[in-house]
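Checklist before submission:
- one chain only
- standard amino acids only
- sequence pasted in full

Submission:
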Amino acid sequence: MTAMTRLRTHRRPPYAVGDLVTGISYVQPEDRARESPEEITGHIVQVGSGWDGIDAAQAYVWVRLASGRERQALIRDIRLVAP
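Returned file contents:
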């Protein structure tokens, strides 16, 4: 199987830039002494890594909140907001 064939057979991420999502933010283990996960709602501004079973447990997105701040969230901890 060539690299191009592998790329074409991979699933697309379940979220895309611009999607409105809600859920819980992700805080890196080394940052948990000074920061806690929080409930978030906002638009996805960047799709991170972790797709298609490679490291899916850590698949993430960046979400821009209404305040303009951006928070990281694992895809398992968010869901689409109905339009």
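Reviewer check: The radius of gyration is 14 Å.
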